[in-house]
Structure formats: structure tokens, C-alpha cells
Amino acid sequence: MLPYLILLFVLLVLGVVLCEWKRNAASMRVRDVVFLVLSGVALTLFAGLRGNTVGVDYPMYQGYFESMRQGGAAYLISADNPYRLEWGYGLLNYLVSLVSGDVRVFMAVAGLLIAVLTCLFIGKYSPSAWLSVFVFVSFGFFNNSLCFIRQSIAIAIFLFAIPFLKRKKLIPYLVIVVLAASFHKALFVMVVLYFIAHIPVNWKSLTVYGVLTALILIFSWPIFNFVTQYIYQYYATEEGLYYMNGRDWQTAFVPVVYMVVVVGLRRFLLRRDPDNVVLVNFSLYAGLLYIMTLKHFLFQRFGMLFFTAAILVLPELLMAVDADREELSVLEQGKAAPKAANKAVRKQAERERRAMKTELRSRKVYFHCAVAGLVFIGLIYYVWMLMQDRTMLLPYLTFFQS
28, 46, 264, 307: which has the highest count of C-beta atoms within 10 A? Predict the structure, then answer.
């Protein structure tokens, strides 16, 4: 467990020192870029150096890579190729196999791809790079990428579709969804998302979502039998009923709390950007799907698609609470009071200046308290997931050791 904790601790310290400590508008962008580069290198090395005992799905990915290496280009369209429809994943394996027949090279390339895509997305769209990276690691999304490689690459690609979804740009959104689905076909469900993601979150929509969730849970077995008969036969045959077993309440606790917090404080997100209703809906879908995992683990695979957006949602929410630090700095230096000949006007301006300064100071305190709370919850959640070790990530060994 120690290597994982060291990784998170290093990223946390780097984030606070580089991105938060004495932050100002002039240096913020450069600091974020340096932090993201260092984070990307650390995440890539951590993923690329792991041994073949780290991650329950490692042998499966290794077997597929070796089949691709032996089968060559013909295997891409062969009926024996289990991922023939997920052509992006097959093509990635094929291209790497042309360079090296060592599966460790493929794992390093996959880790690099996930880290680069995630850091690029964070650098371009997140209002706080270090908070996004912290959430990416502490909420288990990075650890998932050590096991669920196909899905993690697909999600990393899909993240770039969110800005187009917010602005209702259908064509680029669909292009990215199709590309993401070429690594994991579950991403095709995001086509439907385009038509519902802008639904206002109010008591009416919450009631509808609650009723739908209840109905799905009540009729889950007939739904499961239908889906596995025509679409996901894999889950009904090779895996038996494992994916239909329920998880404990701890699995859903953090995603549900996340949903409640984001939905409850959605006015801050919407005030920052009305199109953030998409992010609010993402948190809602994630929480509801994780509630469904209490009956069937299968829903967690879909819940993860929405939950990963927390790397953008939580920084957006926290920055909506934070004070304008440049404005606060000016007020604290006493440079904001306008000059006026009338004494009454000067007194009124001074009162307004003091009131604004008090409000900004309070918001700054709220922000720091919220960040501290997020860090605390993230650490506890991260340790809990490592202790559960459901995806066999422990002990972490490099390929030099295994």
C-alpha cells in the first residue's frame, strides 16, 4: 500500500506548493503546466513499471496483446478477436506490437496515453489543476486505470466531449463518443446523454430520476436477462452472475455523498456557468448508478463513466466558492476606495469596501475549509479502496521484482 500512498502524498504536496501557495494570476498558468508535467510523468512511470501481478485484468490484457502480436493485422478483423468491434483498442495493441513484442511496453504506452489525455484535459478545462489531479488519484480513477485499461482510455477520451456537450455541439460530441467507444463500447450510452444532460435539476426531474431508479432496481433481473441475451452476452455466460452480485453500502457512500453535495450546491455551479447543469446531471447519474450497485455490481461500470467527471466538477464547485484573490488583494491594500470630495460619499464607499473585503475573506476561508474537507475525504476514501483491494493492486511490485 505504501507506494500508492507515497504517490498521492507527492502529488498533494506538489499541488499545494506549486499551484496553491502564494497563487496569483501572473504565475498560475506556468505553475499549473509544471505541475501537470510532473504529475503526468509520475503517473506514467507508476503505471508503466508495475509488474504482471498488479491488477486483476493484467493477464487478460497480456493474453490479448500476445494474440495480436502473433495474429498480426489480420487479427484486427478476425472473428477470433474478442475486441473486433472495439477497433481503437485493437489498433493500439497492433501498433505497439509492431514496435515490441513485450507486453510491458504496451502497459507503459497505455499508462502514458491515459496520463497524457487526463492531464491535457485538466490543463485545458479545469479551474484548478492540482485539485483535479488529486481527485483523479484519491477517488480511485487512476487505480482503476491499472486494471480497467480499455474503459479508462475510453473515459479519458470522452472527457474531451464534455465541453461540446455543455455547448450543445452535436457533431464534435458524437465524433469523440465514437472514438471513445472504439476502446470500450459501453461509451455508446453517451449518445443518449446528449439529449438529457441539459435537463434542469429540480424537484420534478429529481422525482422522475428517483422513480426510474426504483423501477430499474425492482425489475433488474428481467432487464438483465434481456440485455445479456442480445447485447452483453459476455456477462451472462463467461462471468456467470458475478456482476449481478450487490456491493456493500461503503462502495456507494462517497459517490452518493458527492451527488448530494453537488446537487445541493448546484446554484454555485450554475451561477459560475449556466451550462454547468451538465456537470450537475453527471453527479446525479453517478450517484444513482452507484445506489444501484447495492443490488448489482454491473451498474458500477456505468457509474464510473459519470463519476470520473468529478475531476472537473469538484474543482468547478470549489472555485465557485473561492474569493477573487486579486480583488481581495487590492481591497486589503486599501486601493479600492474611490476619491470623492463629499465626505458622505467617501464614508459610504469605505463601508462598501469593508463589506466587500469581509465577504471575500469569508469566501476564502470557506474555500480553504472545503479544500481541507476534500483532501481529508479523498485520503480516507483512497485508503479504504486500497484496503479492500478488489482489483488486486496489492502489493505493488515493479516488473523488476515480479
Answer: 307
Kindly report which listed range (146-155, 260-269, 356-365) carries the lowest average pLDDT score. Answer: 356-365
Name the nearest CA neighbour of 190 among 308, 294, 91: 308
Q: What is the mean pLDDT of residues 178-182?
A: 97
Q: Which amino acid is at 4?
A: Y
Q: Which residue has the cell 459501453?
A: 186
SS3 203: helix
CB atoms within 10 A of CB 144: 21
CA distance 277 to 197: 7
In this structure, is the dihedral angle defined by the CA atoms of residues 243, 244, 250 and 255, taken in order, positive or negative?
A: positive
φ/ψ of 17, rounded to 5, equals -70, -45
C-alpha cell at 335: 486601493
From CA 104, how far away is CA 50, in angstroms rounded?
8
Indicate the Cα dihedral angle 319, 321, 322, 326, nearest 10°. Answer: 100
Distance CA 140, CA 351 (A): 47
Residue 102, all three cell numbers: 513485450
Contact predicate 292/217, CB 8 Å: yes
What is the amino acid identity at position 370? A
Taking the C-alpha atoms of residue 309 and residue 313, their distance in angstroms, rounded to an integer, is: 6
Cα–Cα distance for residue pair 127/32, rounded to 1 Å? 10
- Spatial contact of 94 and 74, defined as CB atoms under 8 Å apart: no
Q: What is the largest CA-CA distance in the chain?
A: 87
Arithmetic mean of pLDDT over the chain: 89
* Structural contact between residues 139 and 318, judged by C-beta atoms closer than 8 angstroms: no
C-alpha torsion angle, residues 25, 31, 35, 36 (rounded to 10): 60
**Mean pLDDT to the nearest integer, 91-109:** 96
Asked if residue 158 lies in contact with residue 178, where contact means CB atoms within 8 angstroms, the answer is no
Choose among 312, 304, 268: nearest CA to 285. 304
